[in-house]
Design goal:
Layout lengths: L1 H9 L1 H26 L2 H9 L3 H5 L10 H25 L19 E4 H10 L3 E2 L7 E9 L2 E11 L6 E11 L26 H14 L5 E2 L8
Antiparallel strand pairs: 1-5, 1-6, 2-3, 3-4, 4-5
Helix pairs in contact: 2-5, 6-7
Amino acid sequence: MVMIKHELKQGWITLLIWTMVIALMMALCVLIYPEMETQMGDVSAVFAEMGGFSAAFGMDRLNFGEFMGFFGVECGNILGLGGAFFAALLGISVLAKEEKEQTELTRFGGKLLNGLSLSGRLQNMGWYRGSVQDAGGYYTFYREDGDLGVELEFSGCFVGDENEEVTVYGAQFYRAGTVKRGSYVYDTVKPENLYCLGEISPRYFSEIVLQLTKATASSKEKNVNWKATR
């Protein structure tokens, strides 16, 4: 019960929006019923004779031409589909228990994709390239929001020659303003400035996960041995 209350408190706005959307869609189904009533007699007979399909949606037991039958089928489908989408939305950003004590987010580690695609998508979402080092190479992207920063490490690109395959490594959350960046600057995130993933607010964490999901969406392959070749 404590966990349920905690989750409801964390995501009450999302839950409220989802509830309002589902309620609105159900209300629309009720409002259009008078227009559909005269046409549903024949449709109900057809659906009742569709065997397993009808049984799966309960249409073999409900008269689609009556209000309760129409409401039960249509609104039941809306509630089921809406619940599935809501569960998927929550699941994409859930922090696994084993991740909470870690200081690096590795769920995107090993993804292979075009460097130009990765760079373009991240920069469009407010990320910046890390320090440009020898031969014009850079190996990180970062963003800082208030007191928090997040740095994504990858196999690297060269400025002006980013149209090549790269491997995504991990992302770390750190205290903003503690890393010096610029041309030929080799500063890195210090261990004492790192945050454990469990210390990051759920809202910020889920936003970063969503951004990284979008940035790596074009990846079709994964290097399962990325940690060994890092």
